[in-house]
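Hi L.,

As promised, Acyltransferase:
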Amino acid sequence: MSGDWKQRPEGGGWFAIWLIRTIARRGGRKIARLLLPPITLYFLIVRGPERRASRAYLGRVFGRPARLLEVARHIHSFAATILDRVFMLSGQMQRFEVRMDGLAAVHEQIDRGRGVLMFGSHLGSFEVLRVLARQRPDVTVRVVLDKAHNPAMTQLLDALNSEIARTVIDAGQDGPSIVLAIQQATDAGALVALLVDRAHPGQPSQAATFLGDSARFPVAPWLIAAALKVPVVLAFGLYRGGRRYDLAFEVFSEGIEMPRPQRSAMLAELVQRYAGRLQHHARSAPYNWFNFYDFWQGNDDAITPHAVDGRAAGGRAVGDGHAGPRAAAARRA
């Protein structure tokens, strides 16, 4: 399967997602969950690339060939978290049992008033992080998302909660605009959340050992963190079945310093540390891996000093555009 995950179409399209939303909102979660078996069957039968990617990943994490029922459980877990997103974004977090670990450390970083970068992944549910809004209503949460990649889901989420939709930082912008928006948010003391596990083909990435093999991870998030010098917290919202989620926070850095002469070595070390934590949580919740493509094929672009200096947010080029001193600071990082 091609490593270019962005070329995969959305499963089911807008109508299917709208149907799930309508049934969930009118019939409740128990009735809506009756849709999960047919959705799982659809992906098993129709979506061959996702089925094969699931089997390949599970084989890595289990250390043996994956069974078809395990692939079905994997897809079912994905569908369940998508359904739960409807309720989470509708402000119905009380429906779920969320066990949190490491929250005090996040509060400590937030209370320093510098803003925080929260790095998530396509492992588990990123939306369960909305529980933070209940814990700290005084803190603004901004999420960096590529609206163009999943237009049907974007329209659905906009319809569910327009207030949250207005806080999204669109990763489809040019690099300087993204960096500027993130810095403005952190300067205001916001918590900015973004997914940092998928490398865009053709953009700078760093190889790291992950589940026994080499995989490539994007470097842009780490360059942004070094430019802004704000704390970095890792977040994992792991689905445990039923209505149970585990939300784990880990303070990764209180501020990344990356001197130019040590940049390549430091990027390699940061990405490998991150890959190690991602692997730890993937092994603890193997059915939460929602990268349904050949993650290890990735892209073969090597990092060069020129490439690192010239690229930034969202895997997009930070070239010679005039984005003001903030974006210039990001380029210098």
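Residues 299-333 have pLDDT under 50 and may be disordered.

Thanks again for sending the construct details.

K.
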